[in-house]
Amino acid sequence: MGKSLPLHLLHANNFTIIINRSHAILHFVAILFLVHYRLSPFFFQGPGTSTTVPATLPWLLIFASELLLSLSWLMSRSFRWRPVNRTVFPERLPPDGELPAVDVFVCTADPNKEPTVEVMNTVISAVALDYPPEKLHVYVSDDAGSDATLRCTREAWNFATCWVPFCRRYGIVTGCPDVYFSSSDDEHGKFKGSEFKAEREKMEKKYEVLTQRLRTIVQDRDVALNSNARDHPSMIEVINEYQREEMQDEVKMPLLVYVSREKRPSRHHNFKAGALNVLLRVSATMSNSPYILVLDCDMYCNDPTSARQAMCYYCDPQTSPSIAYVQFPQTFRNVRANDIYDGQLRSTFKIYWPGIDGVEGPFLSGTNYYIKREALMGNFRKQEDLRALKRSFGPSNDFIKTLVEDHKPNFINDGESSRMLLEKAKVLASCSYENQTTWGSKVGFMYFCVLEDFFTGFTLHCKGWKSVYLDPKRPQFLGTGTTNFNDLSIQWTRWMSGLVSVAISRCCPLIYGPVKMSLVQLMCYSELAFEPLLHCLSLWGFALIPQLCLFNAIHLYPKVSDPNFNIFLIIFASSISESLYEIVVVTGGELRAWRNEWRIWMMKSVTCYTYGSLDAVLNKLGVTEASFLPTNKVTDDEQVKLYEKGVFDFRAAPMFVAPMVTVILVNIAAFVGAFVRVLVGDGGDGYWEKMAGQMFLSFYILVSNYAVIEGMVLRKDKASIPLSVTFLSAVFSVFILLIGSYVLC
Predict the structure, then answer these.
(1) Which of 42, 172, 187, 299 could form a disulfide with 167 if both were Cys (CB 3.0 to 4.6 A apart)?
(2) How far apart are CA 496 and CA 613, in angstroms?
């Protein structure tokens, strides 16, 4: 009876589906009326037609902006076509002895931007997962080759030998010691007696000693070693190879391995995807687990049962053969209710991902996912041609053996076998191993762009694999989100560059995907890949073209008394209503959450989306080379205080601040000029009626981005917009008003 119970259930959000589809029909009809209005002066002129074109070029440019944004809206309907949510029942899984093994990959790249204490907390939380220890193997990828990270990993392991038994004994759910000891919630697990309190105090003192040792190691690290992050040999060490005798009888611990791949300045290392492929090869020779959990170094395991929840799909014979990965959302512990930077990515993980989960599954999202090794490597049998396998996977015979279905993992038993195994593993981690192979192009994580996750997931879906999005009530993983404008801009520029690089390549979803995936799934991938281009071009159009025409008393929208004015009014109200419904009703956010997301979207469109698109195009033309800048995870107390107060920190590169200030100044000039004309009656009869739409657009942009005006004029603190940036933006604004007016009007 028990065996017949399902391990998981899928629930379609029928009410939201009805709302989404009804809204899509109405909004689409309004867009058709808009297209008719814009084209009627050219194709539908007649005796009863009142529409005239005041200036052809700006009319066509604003029409192009409207079409681009409408195209993005149309493709985004795919995310809202069939939103679903899922429930799993890990208590119905088979006994521990029948569960498959899991490898955990923890990736770190820069000890200067990724605090070592935070990285080690992630490693410790991974070791503390609620999974059979003999079937759990944790690999730490140190792409900087830092000796300090290796030494800190050893210290973390020593602490974990005490921390893991403590968590198991008392049922502690929070596996990250830093969060557990600093949390205001008094989590006691299954015990509340004096024995537990005494053990907790001892453990807390041990953690304090650990953090002090980690900080000392980081402070005393060898500067020369740190400066050779791009030039160092491969280094692999099994941290728990020689367990203390007294520990072996007390508790079983997972395998913990430190891996640093070889890097040389003369070779391209393919960013994070290259590091993950090294871990794929090294882990294959040591544990060769069929499933892999990938974590960023700041994403600690907040719930130890995530592996068991993922196994609810992999242990189901009906779904397991087709599922490549189970994706969990990215949740951040440092975001506040007034999240002015939208660091929690609310729409992404609460609207987009549940929507695409109803269409063959979500995108691969960089971290917090369990992926099937077979999906990345393929499935082979003993009779496979050895030479063909070596052409794809490289010359290592030991690694080729791991591809065979019945291959047994090479567990380390003694010092001699360990030494031989590590020497072979170092060859797999060398920077020359992938020469003349298909790593990154056909097998493993895909190289192609800095967004290895998006392109790898796209490739897997094109091959027929499916994926699952699982969002339990308790966040399975918690990380650190961006809480200042500079880090946000750098991070999003990198993401947008990766997306556009796929959009303008031979692997463009519109070219590569039509015959390999469903129409709705194809629209999802296409919308995300083209989103930076569509949004930056359209938003720059809306931010400047109507304003330049307003500045020169040229109308682009119907009179208020014209029935066609209702078309634009309905589209605007429809867009606002949809975003309000999704943020407030679907995700449970507040009105200020809606305001914050709307504002930061406009800011990112004229900065990150623009620079990311430009970077991808220049990379395609060979003018620049792709680069990867890890997101800064170092906490700045002053920045945190500003974020908690809901105050923007504009201490960012001028290239990110100047475009926003320029847009604001142009809109101020246009709105004030038009307002003065209305007051003095200088615009002639019907001026207000003709210009109401453009005046409202400028006013809406100014009100929505009041934080920028505040940073320019009202604030005098260190985080305000520098006077030099304001002056530079003023020069750009005057140039745009003069040249733009001459060209367009």
Answers:
(1) 172
(2) 6
